[in-house]
Amino acid sequence: REREREMRGGGGGLGRGGGRGSRLLNPRAIATTPARKSFLPAIAASSSSRRDSDASLCSSRPSSSSLAHAAQGPPVSDRSYQSAALRSVNAYLASISTAALKPPLPSARDITKAFDDVLSRLGWPIPVGIASALDDDLPSILAMLGCPVKLSKSALKAPGTPHAWPPLLAALHWLVQLARYTGHRASSPPFAGVNDVLLFHFQSFALFMEGDDNAVEALDREQLRQTEEQVANLVAAVEFLEKEAAELEKRAEAVRSGPSPREAAEKERALLKDDIKKFDVMIESWKETLASTERVLREKEESMEAKLRANQRISEENDELRKRIASQAVNVRDAERMKKELQAMHRDVAEAEIGRNALEENLWELDADIDRKLKELEPLVEQTNHAIRKLKLGCDFQYVLNAKGSSSAEVLGTSYKTMLKPALNELAEETKKSYVAKLEEKIALQQQSREKSIQLEERKEQLVAFQKKIDEAEAQSIVIKKEVDDHASKRAAEGERMLNDLEKREHEIVIMKEEAEKFLKDSEQILQDAITENDEEIQMCAGELVAIIDSVSEYKEYMESLISGMQVELSKTAQAVAESHKTFLFAMLSSAGLNTSLSGSKRAHPS
């Protein structure tokens, strides 16, 4: 910073009063984007003039400031350029869903519409073909955008004519290129926005070059605060991830410590076998209940059939009696007798109706009992089917109740005998085989256990013998231990002495290390100061070099302009001298001719 203050106070071409050096190293010139240069032609011309003047020192070319007004536009009269420009314009118009321009000469309406669409993509608020005429707004727009193509008023008044179309096409092509570049810049993120650290360095360097120390310190504090916030957020994220990793580790440990899939499957298989046994017992009880219900139902049906036969027989007897009565002559006594018989018959019919009603009530009760039993059987059948599916017997058998069945076989079906029983028998056989295998394994293990117990007894006897030897060895070890303790005490004293020596050496090494670190830090600081000083000197030299280059370029431009002026003056002087010489010669010749004529006349008239 002191070096910077000296450079600002002492001139050197880099401070506030440093003339062109401060203008050349202005940090705002660094942040100028190409998009702004395209919309600000004056700034672009000045920056390009500066670059061209710098390059002219090395390439001995004339400065671009003297050629700023002689910039060449596109070759509008070239047919190949016209065809390429028209293809580019039509491709862009197709990309924005606009009608293309028809070659070789589009209509004035299509040209105006194309200018409107392209300028609307550039953000121009008012279409030139609607709010005003083409020749009123378009020249000012192109001049504001810095277009190198110059349009005449005749071309703007009649855009669809052959002489007006080439410059309009060149201007439209230039606007299309500008629109494409602007769209690309708008779609692509800025470089400085991606890297906050780079933006911080740019801003810090800009403030440093302006000499605003307070702003630099404030920017450093703000950047430090943002960095600390980012570090805190990252630390919180790392802690959260560590907690999540610990939870996942606990879950993994719980999974590893839990039962294995085979043990869980064996446990589930044992539970399923118990369920099978329970379901077999339930099925047997259901079969017995169905059998008793079928017996009661069969008895009721038999009694009902007997009642129906008796009723039919009585009806037949009544019909026969009616026929006999109709065929016989009836007197009063027979009528009375028949009346009494008829009353007795009515009493029998009433008693039969009462019996039939009782039978119907019994039948209804029996139907209600059957429905209730069927409803009780449905959840049991569902449980049985679920258990069969869990057993995975390899068959697709399912119990299906038949409410219209008259026997247990018809209600439950007989397919279980051909499908379910073989599968259950196979499962039972497998269970028996596994049980036999387990039993054989158990017997083998028992045999091994007996052998191990015999070996254990032998080992115990060997251990007793070993214990005696161990006691003897312990007695010897006590004696040896005493000797070892004496030897260890001596070695401990020597070790303490060596440890003290080692600590002294370590202390000396620490002191030497601190001195070396201090020396290293001092050397690094000296190196950093030297690097900073060299950088500042390099920056100062660079500024002086740029100032010299600018002054040389300006002087060169001045000399070129002076030489050109002198050449003009020289040419004028030479022309004036030539004219005066011609006049003098003419005068001399004319005077010589006059003298000759006079001498001739004198000779002719000697008097």
TrEMBL record:
Domain Kinetochore protein Ndc80 CH positions: 54-182
Skewed-composition ranges (Low complexity): 55-71
Cellular component terms (Gene Ontology): Ndc80 complex; nucleus
Region of interest (Disordered), ranges: 1-79
InterPro entries (UniProt xref): Ndc80_CH, NDC80_plants, Ndc80_sf
Keyword Iron: no
Top-level taxon in the UniProt lineage: Eukaryota
Biological process, per Gene Ontology: attachment of mitotic spindle microtubules to kinetochore; cell division
Primary subcellular site in the record, as a coarse category: nucleus
Keyword Coiled coil belongs to the record: yes
Compartment(s) of residence: Chromosome, Centromere, Kinetochore; Nucleus
Parts of the chain that traverse the membrane: none
Sections of the chain in a coiled coil: 224-258, 283-376
Pfam families in the record: Ndc80_HEC
Family: Belongs to the NDC80/HEC1 family.
Assembly, per entry: Component of the NDC80 complex.
Role played: Acts as a component of the essential kinetochore-associated NDC80 complex, which is required for chromosome segregation and spindle checkpoint activity.
Name of the protein in its database record: Kinetochore protein NDC80
Source organism: Anthurium amnicola
